[in-house]
Amino acid sequence: MEQQIKSTPIERWITNPLNRWASKSTSGGIVLFLAALIAIFMANSPWAEWYHHLWEHKIGFGFDNELFLNLSLHHWVNDGLMAVFFFVVGLELKRELTSGELSSPKKAMLPIIAAIGGMVVPALIYTFFAFGTDAAHGWGIPMATDIAFALGVLHLLGDRVPVSLKVFLTALAIADDLGAVLVIAIFYTSELSMMHLGIGLGFFLVLVISNIIGIKNVLYYAIIGIVGVWLAFLLSGVHATIAAVLVAFAIPSTARVGESYFVQKMNLLRDRFRGLDPKEKISNLTTEQVYIVEEMDTLCTDVIPLSYRLEHGMHGFVSFVVMPVFALANAAIPISMGEGGGLSYVTMGVALGLLLGKVIGVSGLTALLIKTKLVKMPEGMTYTNLFGLGFLAAIGFTMSLFVTELAFDAQLHPEYPGQAKLGILIASGLGGLIGFLLLNRKAK
Predict the structure, then answer these.
(1) Is there a domain that residue 217 lies in?
(2) What domain range includes position 263?
(3) How far is the C-alpha of 216 from the C-alpha of 37, rounded, in Å?
(4) What pLDDT digit, counting tens, does each position of 404-419 carry?
(5) Is residue 356 part of a domain?
């Protein structure tokens, strides 16, 4: 007879409800949205100057009376914390490319083409507005889709939208993330230090070889990945988040033990456990039983690939710490129509690049391919909800803000980042709202 597990009052009323809420797909998006609202409020409040200087405080490491990596808090967030975000993105990319929706040409063709259209058209629209100006380098800002926000809005509709829409948007966003990583690596890299880049690539090669020969220790990959690859890339001029993606691709995605062995061994351990003390009672385990439970725990760990364990284990930290802190540091957008603000050509280029570019590039190109019978319409999808997905893809919040920080030199043109962020805010808000209304109307 199974014994019911009794929970404490704290577990019943605090811990368990919080865990259930945190496990929902929309919770991370809600926290990110609230963090962005706080940042925007602070940027337009009497405490705006204090809030700005808060992120300029420097943190460094001292050795022999010298400071190393003496960077601002804002810099640490964008190069350090966001490396964790890109590491998880890299794990998701690897999973999709090896066993997910991008694992075969047939599965991958439509979302990849849609993602390419959703990157090229927004870049062209932005270039139309900013061509020949000092802001032209910001063409990469409207190219990216914020997967957390977009999927969060879609999940708000629950079962009212077909699963094929969620699968398509997920694959589209993953392909879009891959494109954004390549754009950052190729076009938004500062002056290179070939020595540090070579050292970083050397450590990356060590990780790849370690994967091939079967090393699956988390601490081993963490030390070499952070101290070796990430730090070397940070000093090389290539953005450090690229190092995080490379390290993610080097993480083993095969388990130590197979499924059949796991089942046989677990059944054997269960029988041994029951045989030692077959009575149903609440008491301390015997020493032999403790050893068996520890062996079970090790077996459960070994049956899950290291890349999957890291992806799922770090998801909560990324959703509830990394992305909200990034929003607090980067979404402080002054809402002003005065000099240096308002609907400038930068704002218009980013806003229309996201709104029109994503809808034309994602929905328009996909519909054209389906009409010409080059690809098939995914099961359960219609042209109306495909149009709605195009607007959801216009939510470029996190990735667009990140590229904004790379695209402009705030010392030379301090007005450009604020103008671009205003365009991101307008497009992301309208895109999410229109996409939700279209999909909700179609669902009804």
Answers:
(1) no
(2) 259-302
(3) 41
(4) 988 888 778 888 988 8
(5) yes
d(CA 162, CA 34): 28
- The string of pLDDT tens digits covering residues 22-68 is 777 667 778 888 998 999 899 889 999 999 899 998 887 766 666 67
Burial of 257 (0-12, 13-18, 19+ CB in 10 A): middle
Same domain assignment for residues 31 and 175: yes
Whole-angstrom CA distances from 132 to 126, 138, 347, 419 are: 12, 12, 16, 17
Neighbouring-strand partners of residue 71? 59
How many Cβ atoms sit within 10 Å of the Cβ of residue 231?
Answer: 18
Of the candidates 29, 152, 123, 33, the residue with the CA atom closest to the CA atom of residue 358:
123
Provide the number of structural domains found in the chain.
2
Per-residue model confidence as pLDDT tens digits over 221-270: 999 999 899 999 888 877 777 888 899 999 999 888 889 999 999 999 99
Same domain, yes or no, for 264 and 353? no
Same domain for 265 and 367?
no
Q: Which tokens in the block code for residue 41?
A: 């409020």
Residue 7 lies in a domain: no
What is the C-alpha to C-alpha distance for residues 377 and 373, in angstroms, rounded to an integer?
A: 9
> What φ, ψ does residue 52 adopt, rounded to 5°?
-65, -45
| CA distances in angstroms from 433 to 34, 92, 151, 153, 351, listed in the order given | 16, 27, 13, 9, 14
Name the burial class of residue 14, with classes exposed (0-12), middle (13-18) and buried (19+) by CB atoms within 10 angstroms of its CB: exposed
Q: Which two tokens stand for residue 90?
A: 């890299």
| 58 is a domain residue | yes
**Coil/strand/helix, residue 108:** helix
**Gap between the Cα atoms of 183 and 143, Å rounded:** 9
Smallest Cα–Cα separation from 154: which of 430, 385, 428? 385
